[in-house]
């Protein structure tokens, strides 16, 4: 029989936003592996499990650890915040899984920041949309730039992940400038949410011209409306097209 | 005090993929309103609630019904499959809400087909991605075409909603042709999932050349990889960029 490994999206953090399916597989696991911050978000009743981790930037080692522990006969879950398949560990697990043919992976989806952040702001992604990360740790900046330009050309609503970090303090400004250069008007309706589904959730709506000069932290998800988006009663709304 | 109305994403259908938060607000509601198919997906214990509906295409009337019922002093939930804010009723609820200033809306996010379908196929959306609906009921086809072209130009992974219907039998073929015309190579890794999170879940991986000639039904979500995507052991994988 193959060793089963679950790659689990835990949602934004609060336990009531994690699916029962995710909860079930974590409860069925002997060992839960993840980035330390995510392990700390787990409820008290998971403290009896074997909880293993590797530091930030050691994602390859963390994934490998899952297969090694599963090889000892344990049921293993790798946890990711949000959705394991959206900027999470799912694809890396499959890549490393090539070396471990006796293991079988199952991805358990979760609520990602595009969805949970959108719900806080209103309905910014209620038509065709793009999700783009501004982190250039693993992606050349030129590719990010090209995607921002294409998103503007296609008049997509956009969710931006990783809009800022210590080293990338001006990346959101650069991203806004690319969008503005590609035809997005200065009054375009935008918004951002901090600490989605955790302590201290806060959100703000503004124009892209204002957004350009805002300072956001690394726990923020940014939303850019499409050309039809509007701010209605403080909420960022991207319409489906119904005649009201 | 304002009348509270919840706009609830119920996920793909199975109760174990609906968040506890969604379950809580449905349990707290006197009245649940939704498209009949979605009401039927609710568990037995919701049968005691007042369940109201309007036929397909009467979405405006369905939304208005929420505000009218809430105005009678009831706690009301509008349910949508997947996420209420992703091709769901959230934005229309805010638009109609302008006429009902005494009502307060809260969106409860859910697992949308991009996330749940991706989990079935492996990890097709594990880098920047677009979500595009091929339904031209509310969106001019030219706009859909422009977005497909932009998605190809930006080398996004793509999730396609509503790839087909009786009246739009050839839309997926047309979409593939637009992507192929915009530089997507014929061997591009793709996949599709039918009946996600419901009875009869089925999936398939293929190239875009093969996808172009497949017949899919309206309960299918289609995934197109980006130029780096690969089929690994039958799974569709879009890489993050880690050195393995």
Automatic annotation (TrEMBL), chains A, B:
<dbReference type="Pfam" id="PF00590">
    <property type="entry name" value="TP_methylase"/>
</dbReference>
<dbReference type="InterPro" id="IPR014776">
    <property type="entry name" value="4pyrrole_Mease_sub2"/>
</dbReference>
<comment type="pathway">
    <text>Cofactor biosynthesis; adenosylcobalamin biosynthesis.</text>
</comment>
<dbReference type="InterPro" id="IPR006363">
    <property type="entry name" value="Cbl_synth_CobJ/CibH_dom"/>
</dbReference>
<dbReference type="InterPro" id="IPR051810">
    <property type="entry name" value="Precorrin_MeTrfase"/>
</dbReference>
<feature type="domain" description="Tetrapyrrole methylase">
    <location>
        <begin position="4"/>
        <end position="211"/>
    </location>
</feature>
<keyword id="KW-0949">S-adenosyl-L-methionine</keyword>
<dbReference type="GO" id="GO:0032259">
    <property type="term" value="P:methylation"/>
</dbReference>
<dbReference type="InterPro" id="IPR014777">
    <property type="entry name" value="4pyrrole_Mease_sub1"/>
</dbReference>
<dbReference type="InterPro" id="IPR000878">
    <property type="entry name" value="4pyrrol_Mease"/>
</dbReference>
<keyword id="KW-0489">Methyltransferase</keyword>
<dbReference type="GO" id="GO:0009236">
    <property type="term" value="P:cobalamin biosynthetic process"/>
</dbReference>
<keyword id="KW-0808">Transferase</keyword>
<protein>
    <submittedName>
        <fullName>Precorrin-3B C17-methyltransferase</fullName>
    </submittedName>
</protein>
<dbReference type="InterPro" id="IPR035996">
    <property type="entry name" value="4pyrrol_Methylase_sf"/>
</dbReference>
<keyword id="KW-0169">Cobalamin biosynthesis</keyword>
<dbReference type="GO" id="GO:0008168">
    <property type="term" value="F:methyltransferase activity"/>
</dbReference>
């Amino acid at each position: 029989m193959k060793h089963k490994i679950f790659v689990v999206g835990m949602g934004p953090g609060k336990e009531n936003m994690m699916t029962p399916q995710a909860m079930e597989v974590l409860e069925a696991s002997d060992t839960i592996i993840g980035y330390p911050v995510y392990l700390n978000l787990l409820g008290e009743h998971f403290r009896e499990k074997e909880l293993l981790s590797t530091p930030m930037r050691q994602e390859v080692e963390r994934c490998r650890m899952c297969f090694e522990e599963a090889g000892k006969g344990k049921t293993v879950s790798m946890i990711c915040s949000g959705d394991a398949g959206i900027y999470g560990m799912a694809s890396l697990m499959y890549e490393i899984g090539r070396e471990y043919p006796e293991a079988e992976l199952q991805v358990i989806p979760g609520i990602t920041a595009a969805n949970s952040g959108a719900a806080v702001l209103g309905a910014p992604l209620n038509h065709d949309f793009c999700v783009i990360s501004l982190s250039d740790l693993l992606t050349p900046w030129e590719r990010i730039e090209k995607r921002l330009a294409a998103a503007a050309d296609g008049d997509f609503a956009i969710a931006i992940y990783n809009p800022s970090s210590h080293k990338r303090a001006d990346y959101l400004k650069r991203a806004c400038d690319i969008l503005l250069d590609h035809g997005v008007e200065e009054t375009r309706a935008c918004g951002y949410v901090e600490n989605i589904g955790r302590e201290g959730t806060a959100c703000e709506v503004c124009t892209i011209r204002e957004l350009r000069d805002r300072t956001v932290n690394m726990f923020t998800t940014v939303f850019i409306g499409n050309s039809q988006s509007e701010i209605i009663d403080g909420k960022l709304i991207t319409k489906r097209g119904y005649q009201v």
